[in-house]
Structure to design on (538 residues):
């Protein structure tokens, strides 16, 4: 079948500030990414997704943008970006940018003009402004993701402005035609430079309820650990964001991106992040209805390693057969996968097992930098934290810095990330897991990651095939990837004990030589060592 490049692609997620510092200032940068392109290429991935590269006051480390058409000075120049883009393309790697178009920094000129230009100014309605209640309190009960009311009062306008995240991240008003066009023009700007697509931050939040209706509470009896983990999770976000109307906006965005396609259909890609009310606001649409693809936090927040966390997510996806999912276990917002599932004393085999599972699932796959090394979560002290979420909920939560520490390249004080003082400390937990150490070890997590990606890329079934679960006893997870005449059975022992999986479909299968732990095929049964995976050609 003639599929667009992104269906079944693997993208490597680069957190630029933490990847590699080329000039010794302690901040990762764009020349640093370019210096490591050969490493990324050798993994076998199809491209890279760069964290936001635009100028920012860094209240939320790049997710508060002050200039959508510029490049953050810490990262380099516009020429540096173009050089990186051209170098990546020369290696056959796609480049996807992270765009934050639902809100801006309060230092963005758009917001400054909206604030200072008065209620009748040309950008007066570019942000979500509302009058305070008679007693001076916020216009309604909307809560911020980062704690407290999602409103901030500004005397210059005698009004509150809405911010779903930090006070310094005012919500852009996509109901304003001019504001929406300005946001869409950001996509035009970077597509004209040759980027291959975008990851859209919080893609369910473009629209708000114009009537400012209160959000309903999550009923007390239904509240889970996740609901109690942040104050904002104690209400259902039905009116500040995640509106059904958002679906129409997603289609507008996709069509704008597709307008830049060349002669080969599908050569530009736009996918979104959805963290709340996913079905309601368009996370599971087909590539011709909303965005091309999307990922949610269902797999990113999972902590219990049982087959159910995969079964449940694909049951949801099964209700939307035309949707093409993006699959991610780890990123800059959540604890690293090995630690999330395995805790502080995670068994060493767990990293390979989880990586094998990630790469085997149907969808476009996102690999977060260091996931191929099996990196655990870093432990930081409070004085080392830079993330506002970590400061907000200390010591209950250390925030997101533990997954954002510098990439460990080689032995040394900063693990080869910089010759200066790194913006976050290099993690002691990563000292034995550097790229240099793993390059020298044919049994390393890195060597396995390369082999696993190569296996997937060499198989149409593993790349774009359907996924059908086999009915085997827990704790084994088993499914078949199928494309045309090719079928591959994928089995994962999600426990520290040996287990046997049996299914008539396995009769006559051939066990493939994938180094994911010991496996023994006998008839229609496969014995699996603890924390191991096996792949069979049916």
């Amino acid at each position: 079948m003639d599929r667009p490049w992104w269906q079944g692609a693997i993208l490597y997620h680069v957190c630029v500030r933490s990847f590699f510092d080329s000039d010794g200032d302690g901040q990762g940068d764009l020349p640093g990414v370019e210096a490591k392109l050969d490493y990324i290429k050798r993994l076998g991935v199809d491209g890279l997704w760069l964290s936001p590269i635009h100028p920012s006051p860094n209240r939320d480390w790049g997710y508060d943008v002050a200039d959508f058409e510029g490049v953050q000075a810490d990262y380099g120049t516009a020429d540096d970006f173009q050089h990186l883009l051209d170098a990546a393309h020369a290696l056959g790697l796609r480049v996807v940018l992270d765009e934050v178009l639902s809100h801006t920094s309060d230092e963005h000129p758009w917001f400054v003009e909206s604030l200072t230009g008065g209620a009748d100014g040309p950008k007066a309605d570019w942000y979500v402004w509302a009058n305070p209640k008679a007693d001076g309190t916020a216009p309604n009960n909307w809560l911020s993701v980062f704690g407290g009311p999602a409103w901030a009062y500004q005397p210059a306008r005698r009004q509150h402005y809405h911010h779903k995240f930090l006070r310094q991240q005012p919500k852009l008003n996509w109901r304003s035609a001019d504001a929406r066009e300005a946001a869409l023009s950001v996509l035009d700007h970077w597509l004209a430079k040759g980027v291959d697509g975008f990851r859209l931050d919080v893609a369910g939040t473009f629209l708000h309820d114009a009537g400012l209706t209160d959000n309903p509470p999550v009923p007390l009896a239904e509240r889970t650990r996740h609901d109690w983990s942040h104050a904002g999770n104690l209400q259902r976000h039905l009116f500040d964001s995640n509106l059904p109307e958002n679906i129409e906006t997603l289609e507008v965005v996709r069509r704008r991106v597709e307008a830049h396609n060349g002669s080969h259909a599908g050569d530009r890609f736009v996918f979104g992040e959805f963290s709340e009310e996913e079905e309601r606001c368009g996370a599971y649409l087909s590539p011709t209805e909303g965005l091309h693809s999307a990922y949610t936090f269902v797999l990113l927040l999972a902590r219990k390693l049982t087959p159910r966390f995969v079964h449940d997510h694909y049951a949801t996806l099964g209700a939307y057969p035309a949707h093409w999912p993006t699959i991610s276990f780890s990123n800059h917002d959540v604890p690293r996968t090995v630690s999330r599932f395995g805790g502080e004393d995670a068994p060493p085999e767990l990293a390979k097992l989880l990586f094998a599972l990630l790469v085997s699932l149907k969808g476009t796959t996102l690999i977060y930098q260091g996931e191929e090394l099996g990196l655990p979560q870093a432990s930081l002290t409070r004085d080392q934290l830079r993330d506002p979420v970590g400061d907000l909920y200390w010591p209950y939560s250390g925030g997101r810095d533990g997954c954002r520490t510098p990439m460990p390249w080689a032995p040394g004080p900063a693990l080869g990330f910089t010759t200066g003082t790194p913006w976050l400390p290099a993690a002691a937990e990563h000292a034995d897991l550097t790229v240099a150490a793993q390059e020298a070890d044919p049994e390393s997590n890195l060597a396995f990651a390369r082999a696993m990606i190569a296996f997937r890329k060499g198989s149409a079934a593993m790349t774009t095939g359907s996924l059908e679960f086999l009915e085997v006893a827990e704790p084994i997870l088993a499914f078949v990837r199928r494309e045309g005449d090719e079928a591959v059975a994928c089995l994962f022992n999600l426990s520290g004990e040996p287990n046997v999986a049996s299914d008539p479909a396995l009769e006559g299968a051939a066990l493939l030589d994938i180094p994911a732990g010991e496996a023994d095929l006998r008839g229609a049964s496969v014995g699996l060592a603890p924390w191991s995976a096996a792949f069979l050609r049916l």
In short: The longest strand covers residues 476-483. The chain has a mean pLDDT of 96. The CA atoms of residues 205 and 241 lie 5 Å apart. The chain has 16 helices and 19 strands.
